[in-house]
Every structure is written in structure tokens, then in C-alpha cells.
Amino acid sequence: MIKAELLEKLISFRRERDWEQFHNPKDIAISLSIEAAELLEWFQWRTNEDIAAQLSSDKRQDLEDEIADVAVYLSYLCHDLGIDINKVVAAKIDKNALKYPVDKVKGRADKYNEY
Q1: CATH numbers and ranges of domains, the chain
Q2: What is the pLDDT of residues 68-102, one digit of tens each?
């Protein structure tokens, strides 16, 4: 998902600051969760109208920064664990297609064990 040259820039950024020593998989996963929570906070207590207004304001940059933080930590985690995110996402789509056949779930929000 993230382009190879951008991933290399991320890895170089981290290496130049000697942050790899702090970036073990556990702590990266924790950081990813924290950043995802900060992303969620951007939407908390807001109506769809509030969100639309924020997207058209200078607060949009805050959302973009939180999305970037999530992407950065996910990229570090995949890199460090040798996981090809494109490959695993494609495999997950295939698994979900079996769990959620169109003829059973189209237009429904039920979990796979509820239909």
C-alpha cells in the first residue's frame, strides 16, 4: 500500500534517529493502537454534519496527521516482521469473500455467524 520509496524514507528517518532500538513489535503495536485511538477521537461525539464541516476546515489537517501516524506505525510493523501488506490484504479479501457471500449478506450488516 505504501510505496517502496516512501517506506525506505520512513526506515531511513527512523535509522538516522536511532529509534530502531525502541521499535520492537510489541511497542510498535501499542503505538499503532494509540494512534488509531487518536484517529477515532477525531470522530468522537460528532454528527455526520459536524464531520463534514471539519473536513472542510483547518481541522482536516489534524485528521490527516492521525491517519499518517497510523500508516507509519503499520508500515514499521510490517517492515520489521517481514509482512507484505499488499499480499496479506489480498489474502484477507479472499477469506472474507468466503465468509460473506454476496447472496447472503448484500445490504446487511450481520456478522458471518448471524445470517
Answers
A1: 4-82 (1.10.287.1080)
A2: 999 999 999 999 999 999 999 999 999 999 999 99
